[in-house]
Amino acid sequence: MSSGKKxxxxxxxxxxxxxxxxxxxxxxxxxxxxxxxxxxxxVQGTVSFIHQHGCAQVGVDYDQTFRTYVGMxxxxxxxxxxVLGLGCETHQARSVAGEIAKTGKPxxxxxxxxxxxxxxxxxxxxxIAVKMVxxxxxxxxxxxxxxxxxxxxxxxxxxxxxxxxxxxxxxVVSDMLVDHGGTAILAETTELIGAExxxxxxxxxxxxxxxxxxxxxxxxxxxxxxxxxxxxxNPSPGNIKGGLSSLEEKSLGASNKSGSSPLQEVIDYAQVxxxxxxxxxxxxxxxxxxxxxxxxxxxxxxLFTTGRGTPTGSPIAPVIKIATNTGIFERMGDNIxxxxxTIIEGIESIESVGQHIFDxxxxxxxxxxxxxxxxxxxxxxxxxxxxxx
Length: 389
Fold this sequence. Notes:
There is one protein chain. The strands form 3 sheets. Strands 10-11-9-8-12-13-14 form a 7-stranded parallel sheet, with helices on both faces. Helix content is 38%, strand content 17%. It has helices at 33-42, 59-74, 93-101, 118-137, 166-179, 196-200, 206-226, 237-241, 247-254, 287-296, 326-331, 341-344, 350-365, 371-374; strands spanning 6-11, 17-18, 22-27, 46-47, 78-85, 107-111, 142-145, 150-155, 183-186, 263-267, 277-281, 301-306, 319-323, 338-339. Helix 1 packs across helix 4 (118-137), helix 2 crosses helix 3 (93-101) and helix 2 (59-74) packs across helix 10 (287-296). Helix 3 (93-101) links the parallel strand 5 (78-85) and strand 6. Residues 9-136 form the D-galactarate/Altronate dehydratase second domain.
């Protein structure tokens, strides 16, 4: 489906389109993260991330971490991947690399144990990365259609203005993207509790509507099993200070990011959508964990609204930060890209700010850097399911 709206992107061997052309140094175990960081500091054009995962994980917890690693490497914004492992960990580098390689992009494996320690692994990883970066730099951009975009949506550090300005404006963008044949991901299951019936009413079929209630019920049951009140952490102290009175109020505001399009499907954390249109990914409310899940699910760009301010970014996907009020936009202008506070001030309409955001997506998709990218805000965190053994 061609929408008529275009951007300049990088075509991958499997047909997907990236808005960036990174070489990813992907550590499959926490022991390898520092070596991965050393490679990125040495080789321009590479990115990586620090994490605490990759070993002593079992069952569905193992599967989710594995799926997240693969999703990060398979994301269309990545040209090629150096998978860096220790050698004896649960999440074996070769298994992760094998799945990423199915996309057709270049993938190589380096093991710290097999390359005589940290220095040898850094040397070998750097050698491979230099060749990948040079090849990536020779790839020409091509004109691509908006229907090939997957946009993640997120709100963090919310305030009383979130549900009135930036979130509804993102909802307008979500609808515009869907109208252009693209995909919008709604996330933050924790922050949709109390608004689930509104989304279920928009489900394309009974199965999807049932799934809405299932993921909400599962999230609530996790708190019950722990013997805690989910409201002790949500709304957060900052949310309350910003004027939010309850989880239900926060959820009604957060759900505004979904616009008014039909809900096509509900997918698991770090899962790639199987349908175009509006999709709900089951994630926690934790900003970094849900951001990682959407990017691992294929999101090339993320829209992030904030009323209290945040520096959050991703190592491979540009994150467009949108202020809900003019005060925070002026105070944290180094971190925030756009201001939706003009809606609160009566200067602009929700629709006009939505159009500004949509135009910004076109610029960012074609190469404009976001504030988080410029500041190298490479955040990464996986939603853990079980304990470490």
